[in-house]
Design brief:
three-stranded antiparallel beta sheet, 31% strand, 16 strands, 7 helices, eight-stranded mixed beta sheet, 312 residues, 23% helix
Length: 312
C-alpha cells in the first residue's frame, strides 16, 4: 500500500478515564486483546539509534497501570486507532437508537431555538437528505466545517511543528525485545524522531520530525521514510515495508467557544493538542461522554437546558 491507503494507526493511548468509559460500554476486554502487551508501557528510551548508545530512560508509571490498581478498576492501554475504531463501530451499531452512516457529507445546517436542520449528502449516490434534530454535535476534526460556519475562533498555535508519520512493518526485535518501551526517541538519525511499537511485533509507527519546514512533506517519498527507519535502527540493510505515510502538523490551540445554542463542538474541532501525554483522542472521548450524558438529561426531562452550559 502507499500514502493513499485509507487507514493509519494515528493515536495510541487509551488513558484510565477513557478506559473507564469504554468499560461502561462493555468493550474493555475487546480493547485489551488488540493492545500492546503491558510490559511495553513501563518506560521511554532516549537513544542515538536502536543499535547505538542510550542517553537514558524515563519510567512511565501512569501508562503502566494494570486493572485493579489503587486508582481505578481500569488500567491504561497502548493500542492504535485502526484497531480501536472497528470495535467502537460495532458497539455503536449495537444500539437500537443508532443509525450509523458512512460516505456521508454535511452540506449545510441551520439552527434556531427550536432545533437544527441539516443537509446530508450521500457520497455514493449524490442524493441529499434533510435531517431534523433537537441538537447537533460537530465532531468533524481539525478543519471543522461546523466550527467555521459558527464563526468560532481558534486561540493558540495551529502550526507548532511538522512531522511525517509513517506506519510500517519491520523486524526490530534484535534491538528491542530485551528492553521493551512505549517510545524510542532517536537523536542519531538525519532528523530527530521517535519509534512507536504497535503490537510488540513487526507493526510499528514513527514520527519523523520536520520542525518548522512544512514544504518538505510535498516531496517526501516512501524511500525517504525507509531511509530514516534504517538510520534509526542503525542498520542500512534492514527490510522495511511501508504501509502508510501521513504528513501531520502539531497544534496547540483551543476554540473560544464550545457551543452555540443547539450546536456543540467536541474533539479536534474544539481543541488541538500536542501528542505529549496522548491526550488528543482521550480528550475527544471524554468530551463526548460529558456532553452526551448532559444532552440525555435535558432530552429526557430530568435536567434544565442550563446544564449544557457546564459542558464548556
Amino acid at each position: 500500500t502507499s500514502r493513499n491507503a485509507d487507514y493509519h494507526p494515528r493515536a495510541r493511548s487509551i488513558n484510565t478515564r477513557s478506559l473507564e468509559i469504554f468499560r461502561q460500554w462493555g468493550i474493555e476486554e475487546q480493547l485489551r486483546k488488540v493492545s500492546l502487551p503491558p510490559e511495553w508501557a513501563k518506560e521511554m528510551i532516549y537513544t542515538t539509534t536502536l543499535s547505538g548508545p542510550e542517553h537514558g530512560r524515563v519510567r512511565t508509571d501512569s501508562m503502566a497501570l494494570l486493572p485493579g490498581n489503587d486508582i481505578s478498576p481500569c488500567g491504561y492501554m497502548l493500542s492504535s486507532q485502526d484497531v480501536i475504531e472497528p470495535i467502537l463501530r460495532v458497539a455503536a451499531e449495537s444500539y437500537a437508537e443508532a443509525d450509523v452512516h458512512f460516505d456521508a457529507e454535511l452540506i449545510s445546517f441551520e439552527a434556531d431555538d427550536e432545533g437544527v436542520r441539516a443537509e446530508i449528502k450521500n457520497g455514493g449516490t449524490g442524493e441529499t437528505t434533510t435531517v431534523k434534530a433537537d441538537y447537533m454535535i460537530g465532531a468533524d476534526g481539525v478543519r471543522s466545517m461546523v466550527r467555521e460556519k459558527l464563526g468560532f475562533r481558534l486561540e493558540g498555535e495551529t502550526s507548532v511543528a511538522h512531522s511525517i508519520n509513517t506506519y510500517f512493518k519491520a523486524d526490530l526485535s534484535a534491538w528491542v525485545n530485551d528492553r521493551p518501551a512505549s517510545l524510542y526517541w532517536i537523536s542519531g538519525a538525519s532528523r530527530m524522531g521517535v519509534l512507536q511499537p504497535l503490537d510488540g511485533g513487526v507493526r510499528w509507527m514513527c514520527q519523523i520530525g520536520l520542525a518548522g519546514d512544512d514544504s518538505i512533506k510535498d516531496s517526501w517519498t516512501e524511500e525517504d521514510s525507509v531511509g530514516w527507519i534504517r538510520e534509526a535502527a542503525g542498520d542500512d540493510s534492514l527490510p522495511v515495508e511501508i504501509l502508510k505515510i501521513l504528513p501531520w502538523t502539531m497544534g496547540a490551540a483551543v476554540v473560544n467557544k464550545f457551543r452555540d445554542g443547539r450546536v456543540l463542538l467536541s474533539g479536534d474541532a474544539v481543541h488541538q493538542l500536542p501528542p505529549t501525554g496522548g491526550f488528543g483522542m482521550n480528550s475527544g472521548v471524554q468530551d463526548a461522554h460529558n456532553m452526551c450524558w448532559k444532552l440525555a438529561a435535558v432530552l429526557n426531562g430530568w435536567a434544565s437546558p442550563r446544564l449544557l452550559e457546564t459542558y464548556e
